[in-house]
Amino acid sequence: MILSDKGFERELLQLTVFCKEKDNGCNWTGALRDYQVFEKDEHLDNTHITSHNCEHCNANFPTKYALDDHKKDSCMKILISCQLAEHGCSKQRFLRSDLGVHYLTETHQICLQSVLEEIMKLIQSRFNGTDRAATNSTSNQFNLSSLISTADTTSSSTSSAINYFYSQLQQLYESLTTVTKNFQPLNEDSIRLSTESLRQQNLLQACQNEINLIKQSKAEIDSYIAGIEPNHEILLQELASLKQKVEDLQSISYDGTLTWKISNVSEKMADAQSERQTSIYSPAFYSSPTGYKMRIRLYLHGDGNARRTHMSLFFLIMRGPFDAILKWPFEFKVTFCLFDQSGQQRHIIDSFRPDTKSNSFQRPRSEMNIASGIPKFFPLPMILQDDNNYIRDDTMYIKCLIDFGDISKIILPYALSLNPALPHHVQRNMIRVETDRRVQLQQQSASSTTVTNNNNSGQVNINKFVNNTNSQTIQLLHSMSNSQSMLEDPNHASMLTGRSLAQQHVTPKEQPPPSKKKKKDDGDDMTDDVMNE
């Protein structure tokens, strides 16, 4: 059995030892009992914890001494004071990471300059004092031992001062190196930023001047617009009126006929179907330079009972400059013609006679009278066909003829089918020749008929027929002479349908009776002479 020696244990605990973390920077020395023995917690548990964290930057260190060195020299999050705080620099604490910024402050620069001047003065005074001591010793020929003693003392004091100031200068040099290193780029940045700031200020001032000019110009423009805006609508209305007048003057007629060219038919038809614009007006035309002023109105998609089934065509009397000296009511037959553009001469012709009791044909009291005419002028299914003969290149032509001489229905289709390119006097001659030819045909037909009859009665009948024929011929020629003004315009050649062409070879007795036509007035009826099938 082994027994412990208490005395020897006490001697061991009194031995002086050093910390096992000496190589890691621990400088602790002391009695073994104070280090860590048995279950006592002394130096190791208090100092050498497994890990040490910096409370400022949260960095981890293996020993407390390493943590202390970190706080002392390298922690960037710890608050420190300037080394020159005791020499007049700011005593305000700041983060070590801001040390370079502090070195560039004006307060630190002034303090640093002051400290350097003091150090230089102190060094100079130290060296001057040493030189004077050596000179006095030589000149006065002190004893050698006294001189050596004084020299040693002075030299020792001077060396100590020089070492102190050298260390201070070394620190200041390091500070100056840091400051210089950071100051140059900062100085360049400062100059660049100053230049850029000046340029931006100049640019801002220029922009402000431009903005002021723009605001002033805008105010002037707004004032000008406010001044002319009230007249804008009036000017637009006057412009539209002038444009319409120019268009009317370009196609104006003074002989009672109108050849109306309608362009963009598909667009106008779509407007009529959607009811954006249900009707269109023709240019105005006149019966003579001092006569009636008239125009026609077309409903491409029909009007009233004819809506969506027929095109409706109406005649209007307008207020004219010579209405006061004209004869009223208006009583002349009106003929409408829709051109067949295929060259087959299958034109659409329809006519009506005015109802002299209707207000539509009295002297106008407003800009224009109520329209009257032919609601079912032409069936819509035929005009809507893709390859119909009446619309080519999205254009149709309609003629309106005012019959001042009561032209016979026998001659009217022929007169309207003449080539509009022919001169007026040629057309008149052709109409006269055609009239004579038809009269001769009637005479020959009448003569052939009377041969088989009783001579006496036949002779009487022949004489009567010849007399009647001659009377009709004279009346027809007189009618053509009276309607001379109607044929002055080469565009008077209206169009015939196939049924109208066939009627050129039909005698007057075979003509169908006139049909009744509605007018665009609320209560009046109108009788029209129509070329029916």
TrEMBL record:
Biological processes annotated in GO: apoptotic process; regulation of canonical NF-kappaB signal transduction
Compositional bias segments (type: Low complexity): 444-461
Database matches in InterPro entries: MATH/TRAF_dom (IPR002083), TRAF-like (IPR008974), TRAF1-6_MATH_dom (IPR049342)
GO molecular function: tumor necrosis factor receptor binding
Entry's Gene Ontology cellular component terms: cytoplasmic side of plasma membrane
Keywords on record: Apoptosis, Coiled coil, Isopeptide bond, Ubl conjugation
Domain annotation MATH: ranges: 255-402
Ranges where the record places region Disordered: 444-463, 484-533
Protein name: MATH domain-containing protein
Lineage, broadest ranks: Eukaryota, Metazoa, Spiralia, Gnathifera, Rotifera
